[in-house]
Specification:
Layout (H helix, E strand, L loop, with lengths): L2 H8 L12 E5 L2 E4 L4 E4 L2 H4 L8 H13 L11 H13 L6 E6 L2 H16 L3 E5 L8 H6 L3 H5 L9 E4 L14 H18 L6 E6 L13 H14 L2 E5 L14 H4 L5 E4 L10 E6 H4 L15 H16 L2 H22 L3 E7 L2 E6 L10 H13 L2 E2 L1 E3 L5 E3 L8 H21 L2
Parallel strand pairs: 3-13, 5-6, 5-7, 7-8, 8-9
Antiparallel strand pairs: 1-2, 2-3, 4-10, 9-10, 11-12, 12-15, 14-15
The protein binds pyridoxal-5'-phosphate (PLP).
The site of pyridoxal-5'-phosphate has 15 residues, from helix 5.
Amino acid sequence: MKPEDKRNKFIPKAVYNVHKIIINKAEDFLIYDEKGDEYIDFTGSIGVLNVGNANSEVVKAIKEQAEKFTHACFHTYMHKPYIDLVEKLARITPGDFEKMGALFNSGAEAVENAMKIARHYTERPGIITFDYAFHGRTISTLSLTSKVNPYKKGFGPFLPEVYRVPYPYCFRGEKSFESEKECADFYIKVLEEHFIKYFDPETIAAVIIEPILGEGGFVVAPFDYLKRLREITKKHGILLIVDEIQSGFCRTGSMFYWEQTGLDYDMITLGKSIAGGLPLSAVIGKKELMENIQEGGLGGTFGGNPVSCAAALSAIEFMEKNELWKRANIIGEKIVKRLVELKEKSKYLADIRGKGAMIGIEFIKNKKTKEPFKEFVSKVIAKSREKGLLLISCGVYGNVIRTLMPLTINDEYLDKALDILVSSIMEVEREYE
Ligand SMILES: Cc1ncc(COP(=O)(O)O)c(C=O)c1O
């Protein structure tokens, strides 16, 4: 049986594949399928490969650790890679307060644990989440996640005491805004109205926010909104959880995006690119929150597996040594420059936004109504693949292309990828003339 047929026979369609190719080998930012066809990877396997696929330094660290011991559940006996990694994360995450952390397997698990810590500390049940949010696919993180189809459809009931408020998505707002400040003011007012109409802020343990939406469309929350949000959370004794699972580890032009805001926070959730492709996630937070929980209250069998921790230590060292955040800015500037030229001519390319190399490109059918144009994006993705570039979309409406390439991509291939992207957009545009 051919692998594609075997896949269809044994793996349900719910376990979706954006690109129906079977990868055989990867070299940094390049992917090869079984026929030997080469693709430039602009997906980074959804933001996991900031240091490149099969990064030789990470592979060396994995091998060395695997030869010593492949697993040690931290609850049975300790190991140095876990301890060293939490220390490292506490040092590189923003904020100069005393921090502690714990390691898990996936982003969703980190978010679940951040919720547990917040509830335990505040002795309150409520969690505030946002429109367009994505925090994972387990039942409790799905309760926070937006986008019904395919993520939530048929999987309820979800967690009680989760309150959803509008995200300051200025481009697609309830009204059009003259400035970011006006947008921020509007959405802060909406949040405060929720405290009057829908729920009591004194029952809320935490707000969880992606300062740049990932799955929800690569939307940057205005700084003024985040600043006021922090003030409001402080006023009501609500904890602020910053979810940097997608935006973290150099993607936005700094190790973590929150650094760029200079604002205070209580906990940060990390995952995806943390370990150069191995499964690992973390919650890092203020010591008083983390230390408040009874002995044995946090953990799991595999969380902080030593091979994953060794990979993470090596991936972070690679990021620091190569100042990968600087490269993210250079990549982002190149993308924006190419696309801004195109936007001027295009009828459908309506918004280019982001920070560093986390760039969202939004397509709409009509510049007045801003009706999302998902089919356009699907066609661009298909055409780009034919030409050797792998892309993925995002956004509740699936009408945004997002850039999550390894930050190790060189100029030659970046230019090649942008040529493919631009020519594919132009070709699809012609189809609609
Ligand atoms: C911001 C954010 N939080 C949480 C998650 C969930 O992570 P995982 O898929 O590793 O459970 C994701 C995954 O896309 C994410 O982007």
